[in-house]
């Protein structure tokens, strides 16, 4: 009995042998792998000649961290100041401020696909103009709904924008109203305001939209986290507000659409135009498309418009000379009678300084501060002497690009609307990605432009606006 026991390997010995095996074989193997990884991403990859934060060469967590923290507007400004106009910010990701490259990446007819960054935003949606990766699919999809978002079609909705503006003005007279943008979207999409201006509060939906934008801004950099989360969510629950694009906001939109259809409307609102498209071409524009587009109106048309309005009023109040010029122009075009009547789009178009103010506010403070990442196609891309192989992720930060001295000169960081009246327009637009580039231009741009160019002069005619506290700089989060 004793002998038998002695001949057996004790459990401790077995553990020791195992540990020895691990240290002898696996640990060296993983050390070698780690060293190979460091050597490749640090020094051998085709991107290793491109300068940038050292740690970012090795891991996308650098991007994810700043997306989570919301400080891309600061960090990317510093990175470009320190390392130059073309920088590496991830193992396979590059940012550039080169106008030549920008034209190739974002210009008309570009075939650069959107990167995996957008995949979590797309989620399970089969039709998603904004987040669709494939540039050809995007182009075809866009063709079938583009018409509804053209200025010539949107202009039919002007009376409904007017009614929301009038309502907004009357509420501002009595108390603080906050949710103009969200309510306008309700008015033009469903012929009904969501009633937020009355309460002056952020609705649940707007809160969800903001949360989704927040989680999208970091999880997009590490989309595998999103995929694992999706797999596990039946067990662990839902922790990414991101799903709202296919979840809560879509449900909200569906409810609004159904109640609008039940209610009926004499307005030819955007929903009715989308439904018309569906009637003409049910195969291409099916129900999914109608609801997806209406959801996008709600999702993309609210907080973004608010950002644009805030930037305009903030910079006008910080630059009282500009405000005065604008007030004079408004007065020249519409005089001082009927101030309750909203300024028409036609009148707003006769105000070049207003248009310049809107461009300038969007240049200096676009909605997006982080890169709009794309994938380099077959054949690669040359950027300022660097060769980027196919598959590299390349993009530019609209915020940093809009403030680039190479494009806008010494006073790039100043709010100076005059530049839009003096300068060469194509030069000015070469750094303007506030609505994305031509090939994936924001579908709602024309709608925002109509809304904003009406609401700004209308408010300025009706109110004398001031900062509540003149010494406070605004707090930014990207
Ligand atoms: C874009 O993505 C699609 C689908 O993944 C792919 O078939 C196509 O080749 C890509 N295009 C380019 C230019 O990389």
Automatic annotation (TrEMBL):
Heme binds at residue 442. GO terms for molecular function: heme binding; iron ion binding; monooxygenase activity; oxidoreductase activity, acting on paired donors, with incorporation or reduction of molecular oxygen. The chain crosses the membrane at residues 21-43. InterPro entries: Cyt_P450, Cyt_P450_E_grp-I, Cyt_P450_sf, Cytochrome_P450_monoxygenase. Gene3D superfamilies: Cytochrome P450. The keyword Zinc does not apply. The keyword Membrane applies. Belongs to the cytochrome P450 family. This is Cytochrome P450. It comes from Exophiala bonariae.
């Amino acid at each position: 009995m004793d002998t038998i026991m002695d001949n057996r390997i004790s459990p401790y010995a077995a553990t020791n042998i195992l540990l020895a095996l691990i240290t002898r074989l696996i640990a060296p193997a993983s050390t070698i792998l780690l060293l190979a990884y460091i050597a490749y991403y640090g020094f051998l990859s085709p991107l290793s000649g491109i300068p940038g934060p050292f740690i970012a060469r090795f891991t996308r967590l650098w991007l994810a961290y700043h997306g989570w923290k919301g400080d891309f507007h600061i960090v990317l400004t510093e990175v470009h100041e320190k390392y130059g106009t073309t920088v590496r910010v991830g193992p396979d990701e590059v940012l550039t401020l080169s106008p030549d490259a920008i034209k190739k990446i974002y210009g008309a007819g570009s075939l650069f696909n959107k990167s995996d960054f957008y995949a979590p935003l797309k989620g399970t949606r089969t039709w998603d103009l904004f987040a669709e990766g494939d540039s050809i699919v995007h182009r075809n999809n866009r063709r079938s709904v583009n018409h509804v978002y053209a200025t010539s079609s949107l202009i039919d909705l002007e009376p409904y924008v007017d009614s929301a503006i009038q309502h907004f003005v009357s509420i501002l007279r009595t108390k603080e109203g906050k949710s103009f943008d969200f309510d306008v979207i309700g008015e033009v999409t469903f012929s009904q305001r969501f009633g937020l201006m009355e309460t002056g509060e952020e609705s649940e939906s707007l809160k969800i939209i903001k949360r989704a934008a927040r989680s999208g801004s970091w999880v997009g950099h590490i989309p595998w986290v999103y995929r694992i989360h999706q797999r596990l969510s039946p067990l662990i629950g839902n922790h990414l507000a991101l799903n709202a694009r296919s979840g809560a906001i879509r449900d909200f939109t569906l409810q609004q659409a159904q109640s609008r259809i039940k209610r009926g409307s004499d307005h030819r609102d955007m929903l009715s135009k989308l439904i018309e498209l569906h009637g003409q071409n049910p195969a291409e524009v099916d129900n999914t498309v109608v609801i997806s587009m209406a959801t996008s109106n709600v999702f993309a048309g609210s907080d973004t418009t608010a950002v644009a309005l805030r930037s305009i009023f903030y910079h006008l109040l910080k630059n009282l000379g500009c405000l005065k010029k604008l007030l004079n122009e408004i007065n020249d075009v519409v005089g001082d009678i009927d101030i309750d009547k909203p300024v028409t789009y036609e009148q707003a178009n006769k105000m070049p300084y207003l248009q310049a103010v809107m461009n300038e506010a969007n240049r200096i403070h676009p909605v997006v501060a982080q890169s709009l990442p794309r994938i380099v196609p077959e054949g690669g891309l040359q950027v300022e002497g660097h060769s980027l192989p196919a598959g590299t992720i390349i993009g530019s930060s609209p915020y940093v690009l809009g403030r680039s001295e190479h494009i806008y000169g010494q006073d790039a960081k100043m709010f100076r609307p005059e530049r839009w009246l003096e300068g060469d327009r194509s030069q000015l637009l070469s750094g303007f990605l506030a609505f994305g580039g031509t090939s994936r231009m924001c579908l709602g741009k024309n709608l925002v432009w109509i809304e904003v160019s009406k609401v700004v002069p209308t408010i300025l005619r009706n109110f004398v606006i001031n900062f509540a506290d003149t010494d406070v700089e605004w707090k930014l989060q990207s």
